[in-house]
Design goal:
The complex is a heterotetramer, with 2 copies of chain A (367 residues) and 2 copies of chain B (326 residues). Chain A has helices at residues 43-68, 82-89, 105-110, 115-122, 148-160, 179-190, 210-213, 220-225, 238-253, 283-290, 294-304, 310-333, 352-366, and strands at residues 14-23, 97-99, 167-172, 195-201, 204-205, 208-209, 229-234, 259-264. Chain A is α/β, with parallel strands linked by helices. A 6-stranded parallel beta sheet of chain A has the order 1-7-8-4-3-2, with helices on both faces. In chain A, strands 5-6 form a two-stranded antiparallel ribbon. In chain A, α6 links the parallel β3 (167-172) and β4. Chain A starts with 13 loop residues before the first strand and ends with a helix. Chain B is globular, with a radius of gyration of 19 Å. Chain B has helices at residues 6-20, 44-48, 60-72, 88-98, 101-104, 134-138, 151-163, 212-226, 244-254, 269-280, 302-308, 312-323; strands spanning 2-4, 24-28, 53-55, 76-80, 114-119, 144-146, 168-173, 182-184, 197-200, 205-209, 231-235, 238-240, 257-264, 290-294. Chain B has 12 helices and 14 strands. Chain B is α/β, with parallel strands linked by helices. The chains are: A alpha/beta (367), B alpha/beta (326). The interface between B and C is large, with 45 and 44 residues. Bound molecules: thiamine diphosphate (2 copies) and magnesium ion (2 copies). One magnesium ion (MG) binds next to β5 of chain C.
């Protein structure tokens, strides 16, 4: 309904027209739908993207295994959404700043955050967010949407200081219902900030389906109506996501303002390890969505174009598996911290008022 | 009468309230088919329909504001905020509207709403899922803030909250949801609001606490019994408006008071209780009023959270110190 | 800029198209631009609308006079926006519910709230919001935008109970930047609620001009993009506002969902009596806007069509002046309340905990 | 040195901070051409440009969140919330991000931001323009909450707040903006944060207060002098983290304490001060700790607001009662 929900009378002058387009290059079967963009012409690069997606899936598998055996906290897999993560991260420059949610582990990993760090974070240890690489990236934001104003603030600073850096803010379909997100998009449009919003529309916000989240056929239109360039992209087509991101990032970097890319994808897994999606959605729906998933799609294309072999595939799987095994090993070997470390970064310098509390904690055996 | 966990008791109270009053509606994120992430609303949508059990969009400020609008025109909304860490966008609606509508219109409109939220640490959850900032809410004039400590209290107090003609925030200690069972009679009988409960009589020291800390305080009291210290435990239950008399009567008897809460110390609601005693019960005091609380830090991620929350040992050692003060 | 800020490439399939139209019947000179709607065919009714607008202006004049002489608190005039107020209020049914801001005194007055009550409220006395008529209307909401979720909640209740009542929520151009407003519009769209949003776009939010509030050529498009029917109307043309409102209210009442009417108008006065608009906008701008103001416009039309005479005009002015003098007299004669009345409606029954505080206040001479 | 009102002192501190540090930016509603509705930012946009003095859209949650993002990448944002009644949508950003960024990233990112807001009653303003809910903020771990009581304190404390490496909420008592003048030297010298000021020495009773109530307490103290009661007045100035020592030292001397604030009593920050004394200063107490505060009601509209705020008379009569307690 809704989007067509416009006045029937059309004799009145029209003062604004808006439209949302949808972009895609590869079909779910890996067939080429439109001439590939130049950013996808190098098979080596495509293999890198493929490797990135496979690595993310391996991280997720390892994390869930650890969680299921009581050695990791609640974890959110990105199963089915790997193309969004790799597509967006691969278009960013090192000194750009990513504003991730709990579902963007994979994007952080592409940017140099180690699986060890990610496991440490999800294992319930703040040290995991003290990224040793990509130190400017924001830590994972849990309160949905609340990081959108941060991205706007950072982008404002970049513009003010004449830096050609870009902020990239990832939002879920659920996040698009948050007021702070709208406030941030509006501000971004007013100041034409160097910012790219990526809406990773995986059709579900825990158990709430898109139709209860929004009355509209797209989410991109909400950003567009705020004055931000916006379009949809097949979020399971890494070539399409990356091409859109390259365009949006370039535009932002050139001072031409923000974009909002709605990447249509699907959450193939549970919301998190604490969720049981069978309570609220059908197996058929999930099975159907598996047909569109991004990794098989790119693999088909790579195999079809003769740049990827079964052997390479096996090697890659073994390699990422080994990497994740090692990460888990490192993670599990991490020495615990003193409880009093909870005071360590409360303020730059711990005020006198709280030094006594720290001592109290130390004395309570928390030294 | 049936043995219930707290989450079952809450579910039973909600079902009871919806069954007896067609104006009761439930709204929040994932409260429908999913029955809430903790299952507090399990089965309600099936039984009462999706018009009365509403899966809202992901918009906490909206949930608060919808409740105000619904309540003002005659519904009795029970909103759910998925975790207390996501409740802050609602504070605007609580302070600026829910609690003021009656005063603002001199009784022409009113706001009989309940906002439920799980709160507190101890379930090894990610960041923001371990908040206990009840003191921020208990400072708001015109509000009621209620915190159950057992399944039966959850049942009776939640019913009272829903039937109350004014706005109530109902905070449910997450770590108690499934970790204790109790016989609960689903007979629609509410417990009184604005009343504290003496859950353990004692002679030497009064412990005033609420929520998940009641169980810890009781455990500490049992240990101290063996050391010859007799501890009275008061479950405050309703923080706003709170029951001064029960507290003062207990302290008049014991002469010693310890306040326990999980929230950060500075400006926590324990300060209010201590201030009350220091103002109206000072002459009966035989020892300083101690507070055993969470630290003034960010609640740590799960690895260290058990060091943040007041443990039975910390509580017991504080009680001992106060008991032996002379 | 912005709205045209769409991707240049147009080979991609378009999945949504949106448009905003603008409606108007009377030119600023009172000339007919389009065949008048049937709701404007009865001259008696047009005279009622005219009278309504003149009454609002008289209330504002009286209130400012009282404020300037220290007998009223801060007050917000609706100078120049009277057509929005009368247009929207005149299309509502008695049992519909209005959700007003501080600028909708005039709309409340049309619905039966007395000038005495309004002065009492602005005089700093809660009794002014205990409307004796239109008892279901919400009181004036000061925190910008925060009443939008209330309107959505009330509209939800109407729909749930099968009542054919409509909620009408008035918002400023500034309010359209608030996140809670967007959350409310989104919910309204999802549930097709019986609600009409009226955006009274007076081009300023205190000193902040539209261009710093939004990057877009219309505000209506933001509601439209959420899935709510939306259009612009000349907000200084009471016939147009009323016709749009009648359509929107009818639609809402028939269960066809919400609308958002952006009424283009101008704030001819200061933001409130506490403001000095000369600090931030030019005289020329204000003078130019005076040419479009709604009262002279309708008067010209009424005079041109021979249904309004100078004598009638004089009588009307004298009449509303007398009414406002009387209101001021009543207001100034209102007996003060006991300070302890501040506890009177805090809760339905004052809890024991606060009875002592009430006594304290009484003893402090506040009996 | 020049005589300044508080609003002029704030303006001078902002100008000074912007002049000496190009990373300081000011943002909020109407802060630009209009210079803020109280003129705190008057002239700043002309001097420093519209890129550093930003008129934001009407979006308080955004203002809070923009500050976090700006601060994390190296700016020093000073956000203005037009009135404290409109600050609530920012609380989410304060609790969930501003105060946590340093801990969350173990010092990798930090959040040197200031959020200014006028607060308090007494200017006959409409509803929501008379809030004083500082206690809600002073409960938030990781935050600083600062409240000046005179023009010179406003100048020195605001400079300190802007230079502080962590988030600070700076609350300015609206009724003091223009109602008192003081010599202020615009020399860029900051006052210490986390410190209370003994603004009047005395022997018999300690009054701990802050903001607009400092002046009222001083007036009450002068009156009581004539009755032979010597009152020491402590201006808390920084509520979080607050200066325990100055309070305890004063109470150790006088043995009697009265806490005064304009905010509602229950859960007000006065409770924290009373609790501190009841815990760490109890043995020196000769009388109950009294609180003279606003009532636990909605702040009334202007007609009755003077009955809501603690008056000199109410303060004096409480002090008298405590002084004569035995
Ligand atoms: C403000 C807020 N409210 C509620 C939650 C609890 N919660 C966590 S994830 C989630 C759903 C988010 O959906 P979406 O934005 O679509 O992202 P997805 O999880 O699908 O990636 C909810 C409700 C939260 N984290 N933050
Ligand atoms: C949430 C909130 N923030 C700030 C204010 C202070 N304020 C009062 S009116 C106003 C401007 C409102 O502009 P708009 O929505 O366009 O309505 P108008 O006053 O023009 O009718 C502001 C900022 C407020 N009342 N509420
Ligand atoms: Mg989603
Ligand atoms: Mg406006």
């Amino acid at each position: 309904m809704a989007s067509g929900d416009q006045p029937a009378i059309t004799d009145w002058p029209i003062v604004v027209r808006l439209a949302i387009e949808r972009r895609a290059y590869l079909s779910p079967q890996g067939d080429v739908l439109a001439p590939l963009p130049s950013s996808a012409s190098d098979p080596k690069l495509l293999i890198e993207l493929y490797r990135g997606m496979v690595t993310i899936r391996a991280l997720d598998v390892k994390a869930v295994a650890l969680q299921r055996t009581g050695r990791l906290g609640t974890y959110a897999v990105a199963l089915g959404q790997e193309a969004v993560l790799v597509g967006l991260a691969s278009a960013m420059r090192g000194d750009d700043v990513l504003f991730p949610t709990y579902r963007e582990n994979g994007a952080l990993m592409w940017r140099g955050v180690t699986p060890e760090e990610l496991l440490t974070y999800w294992g319930g240890d703040e040290r995991g967010s003290d990224f040793k690489a990509s130190r400017g990236d924001f830590p994972i934001s849990i309160p949905v949407g609340s990081h959108a104003p941060h991205a706007a603030g950072a982008a404002y600073a970049f513009k003010l200081r004449g830096e050609d850096r870009v902020a990239v803010c990832v939002l879920g379909d659920g996040a698009m219902s948050k007021g702070d997100v709208h406030e941030a998009i509006n501000f971004t449009a007013i100041h034409r900030l160097p910012l790219v919003f990526v809406v990773s529309n995986n059709r579900w916000a825990i158990s709430v389906p898109e139709r209860l989240q929004s009355a509209t056929p797209t989410l991109a239109q909400k950003a567009l109506a705020m004055g931000v360039r916006a379009w949809q992209v097949d979020g399971n087509d890494v070539i399409a996501v990356r091409a859109s991101m390259i365009e949006a990032v370039a535009r932002a970097r050139a001072g031409e303002g923000a974009s909002c890319i709605e990447a249509l994808t699907y959450r193939l897994g549970d919301h998190t390890t604490a969720d049981d999606a069978r309570r609220y959605r059908s197996d058929e729906e999930v099975q159907a969505a598996w047909k569109n998933e991004p990794i098989a799609r790119l693999r088909r294309y790579l195999v079809d174009t003769g740049v990827w072999t079964k052997l390479q595939e096996e090697q890659l799987l073994a390699e990422v598996q080994a990497r994740m095994d090692l990460a888990a090993e490192h993670y599990l070997a991490l020495a615990p911290r003193a409880p009093a470390s909870m005071f360590g970064h409360l303020y730059k310098t711990l005020p006198a008022a709280y030094q006594a509390q720290r001592r109290e904690l130390e004395e309570a055996g928390g030294g | 009468m049936a043995e219930m966990t707290m989450i079952e008791a809450i579910n039973a109270a909600l079902a009871r309230a919806m069954g007896e009053d067609a104006s009761v509606v439930v709204l929040g994120e994932d409260v429908g088919v999913n029955g809430g992430v903790f299952r507090a609303t399990d089965g309600l949508q099936r039984r009462f329909g999706s018009e009365r059990v509403i899966d809202t969009p992901l918009s906490e400020a909206l949930i608060g504001g919808l409740c105000v609008g619904m309540a003002a025109v005659g519904l009795k909304p029970v909103g759910e905020i998925q975790f207390m860490g996501f409740l802050y966008p609602c504070i605007d609606q609580l302070v600026n509207h829910a609690t003021r509508l009656r005063t603002r219109t001199q009784g022409r409109l009113s706001c009989p709403m309940v906002l439920r939220s799980p709160f507190g640490a101890g379930i090894h959850a990610p960041e923001h899922h371990s908040e206990s900032t009840e003191a921020m809410l208990a400072h708001i004039p015109g509000l009621r803030v209620v915190i159950p400590s057992t399944p039966a209290k959850a049942y009776g107090l939640l019913l009272a909250a829903i039937r109350d003609p004014d706005p109530v925030v109902f905070l449910e200690p997450t770590r108690l949801y499934r970790s204790l069972k109790e016989d609960v009679t689903d007979d629609g009988r509410a417990l009184p609001l604005d009343r504290a409960f003496v859950v353990r009589p004692g002679r030497d020291v009064t412990v005033i606490t609420w929520g998940a800390m009641v169980r810890e305080a009781l455990a500490a009291a049992r240990t101290l019994d063996e050391h010859g210290i007799s501890v009275e435990v008061v479950d405050l239950a309703t923080l706003k408006p709170y029951d001064e008399e029960t507290i003062l009567a207990s302290v008049a008897k014991t002469g010693r008071a310890v306040v326990v809460h999980e929230a950060a110390r500075t400006g926590g609601f324990g300060a209010e209780i201590a201030a009350l005693i220091a103002e109206k019960g000072l002459t009966s005091l035989l020892a300083p009023i101690a507070r055993t609380t969470g630290y003034d830090t960010i609640v740590p991620l799960p690895r260290l959270e058990q060091h943040y929350m007041p443990s039975r040992e910390r509580i017991a050692s504080t009680i001992e110190r106060i008991a032996s003060f002379s």
